[in-house]
């Protein structure tokens, strides 16, 4: 854990210096000559911006009681929007700068070709400088547009997504069984009481037989978030509301959170299962702890084999696992369907294009050998209030009796 802190601090320092260089580049365009005073002001702007983007998260970790103070709410919303802008700006800038470096390298390798385009060295230097400044401007403009649009989408809340799951040899009595999934709600600094109320109202309107909460429910302590979590007590499902831990619960004291979700009426599944009945047919509902759990508590090592262990035969076996990668260990134990989250499907464009590099299954319905894996894109968001081109979702999964591997998804 100590090494992770060092890596994080190093990364943030590098990102700060890169941001400072980009601000300096823009300043250079508007200031002639580029005086030391202007250079220092550029770095000061970068410092203030980086503090706004990430400083509120450190303050919140140190003092969760600040959550409902006016000054902190202003800081959080400002910082959250800045963080979204920063993440997009950095990505575009890195891509554009990489292209610019390639062009410069090509000019060194093929000077005759570059000279034929512009024989004047001073002009070439001027054009190169303008290109760098122009790319910084384009990066900032794109980041601003996407941040604004993504904020609007985040504030619109979660959409309902209906997914039909075909299960071979499914008993007639389980056809049409309804499972509602919430994942990665991240109740905390910006996702608060009213947002949670809307989620609960949408889920309850589905009249699901089972409600599955697949981790990362919160960001904060049970005491600081008590008021904002109260609507979750109203979640109702005939066969139960089941919960598994995500990685964020461990950041805030997982044992306290397990106690809290139990008070809310949820059934936590920590490498455990429960057998419930629907129309006289037994269903195994299992859950594993987050795969990072053992780094915080030895007893929380994810164990699909233990979660699958049951004395009774069940014609439908459901697994709740925060991370979709759990399927690689879980599939041999006879689960028909795994419900997961964690990835946020990249949360917002253009990061949504890169999430597939980190996860084999990162969004929607997937087939892993004999088991279906559904990955919820997140019912809330984390960090930036941004869901551009990737809305938050509540998922309604319905079982279908079909001897095929075809499934359907509908928004």
Structure explained in plain terms:
With 411 residues, the protein is an alpha/beta fold. The protein folds into two domains: 2-153, no CATH class; 158-410, 4-Layer Sandwich (Purple Acid Phosphatase, chain A, domain 2), CATH 3.60.21. The protein is built from eleven helices and 13 strands. The chain has helices at residues 2-30, 36-62, 70-109, 111-117, 121-155, 193-205, 222-229, 247-251, 254-263, 304-308, 327-330; strands at residues 159-167, 178-182, 210-214, 241-244, 267-268, 272-278, 281-287, 316-320, 337-340, 364-368, 371-375, 393-401, 408-410. The strands form two sheets. A seven-stranded mixed β-sheet has the order 5-4-3-2-12-1-13, covered by helices on one side. Strands 6-7-8-9-11-10 form a six-stranded mixed β-sheet. Helix 1 (2-30) crosses helix 5 and helix 3 packs across helix 4. It is globular, with a radius of gyration of 25 Å. The two termini are 40 Å apart.
So, CATH architecture of the largest domain?
A: 4-Layer Sandwich
Largest sheet: number of strands, sense, barrel closure: 7 strands, mixed
The shape, in one word, is globular
Number of helices: 11
Within the largest sheet, what's the order of strands? 5-4-3-2-12-1-13
Poorly predicted tracts of residues: none
As a percent range, the share of strand residues is: 15-25%
Number of domains: 2
CATH topology of the largest domain: Purple Acid Phosphatase, chain A, domain 2
Radius of gyration: 25 Å
Helix content: 40-55%
């Amino acid at each position: 854990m100590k090494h992770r802190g060092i890596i994080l601090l190093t990364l943030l320092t590098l990102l700060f210096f890169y941001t400072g260089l980009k601000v300096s580049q823009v300043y250079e365009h508007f200031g002639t000559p580029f005086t030391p005073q202007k250079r220092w002001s550029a770095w000061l702007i970068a410092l203030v911006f980086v503090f706004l983007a990430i400083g509120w998260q450190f303050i919140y970790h140190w003092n969760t009681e600040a959550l409902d103070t006016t000054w902190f709410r202003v800081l959080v919303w400002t910082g959250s929007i800045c963080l979204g802008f920063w993440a997009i700006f950095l990505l575009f800038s890195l891509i554009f700068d990489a292209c610019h470096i390639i062009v410069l390298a090509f000019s060194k390798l093929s000077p005759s070709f570059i000279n034929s385009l512009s024989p004047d060295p001073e002009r070439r230097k001027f054009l190169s400088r303008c290109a760098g400044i122009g790319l910084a401007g384009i990066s900032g403009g794109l980041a601003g547009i996407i941040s604004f649009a993504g904020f609007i989408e985040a504030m619109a809340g979660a959409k309902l997504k209906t997914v039909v799951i075909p299960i071979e040899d499914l008993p007639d009595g389980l056809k049409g069984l309804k499972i509602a999934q919430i994942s990665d709600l991240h109740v905390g600094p910006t996702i608060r009481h009213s947002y949670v109320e809307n989620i609960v109202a949408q889920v309850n309107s589905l009249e699901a037989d089972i409600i599955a909460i697949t981790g990362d429910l919160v960001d904060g302590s049970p005491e600081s978030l008590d008021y904002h979590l109260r609507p979750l007590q109203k979640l109702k499902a005939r066969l139960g509301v089941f919960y598994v831990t995500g990685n964020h619960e461990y950041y805030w004291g997982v044992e306290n959170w397990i106690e809290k979700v139990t008070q809310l009426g949820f059934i936590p599944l920590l490498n455990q299962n429960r057998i419930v009945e629907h129309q006289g047919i037994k269903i195994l509902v299992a859950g594993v702890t987050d795969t990072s759990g053992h780094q915080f508590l030895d007893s929380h090592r994810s164990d699909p084999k233990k979660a699958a262990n049951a004395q009774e035969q069940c014609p439908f076996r459901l697994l709740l696992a925060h991370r979709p990668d759990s399927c690689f260990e879980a599939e041999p134990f006879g689960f028909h369907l795994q419900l997961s989250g964690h990835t946020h499907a990249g949360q917002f464009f253009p990061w949504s294009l890169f999430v597939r590099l980190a996860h084999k299954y990162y969004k929607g319905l997937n087939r892993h050998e004999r088991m279906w894996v559904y990955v919820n894109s997140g019912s809330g968001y984390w960090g930036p209030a941004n869901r551009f081109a990737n809305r938050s979702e509540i998922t309604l999964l319905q079982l279908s009796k079909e001897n095929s591997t075809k499934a359907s998804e509908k928004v």
